[in-house]
Amino acid sequence: MPELVQVRKKAQITLPQSVRQALNIQEGDFLDAVVRDGEIVLRVKKLVDKEQAWFWSKRWQEGEREAEEDIRAGRIHRFDSTEEAIAFLHKRAKDGSGTTNKA
Length: 103
Prior knowledge:
Helix content: 25-40%
Structural class: alpha+beta
Distance between the termini: 50 Å
Shape: elongated
Number of strands: 2
Order of helices and strands: HEEHH
């Protein structure tokens, strides 16, 4: 349901409680503002430490989703030692079965 918001001094606005609750917006959160077709579109953004940015890259997140799917589907291997795991990977590379775990 639309909510009326008034622009105050220094162009400040207050987001209605219903909007904040629906999007779990907390004090200190960041919003990305974009003008699109005569409207202001706000999107909630979270900041990530530079040292952790690699984890949120598109490529890494695709790998995370693939790994989660493999785990859910039971496509996993357990090893008793690091050496056993490395030998398994070397055998897969030698056999040409690649690094994906599609057992």
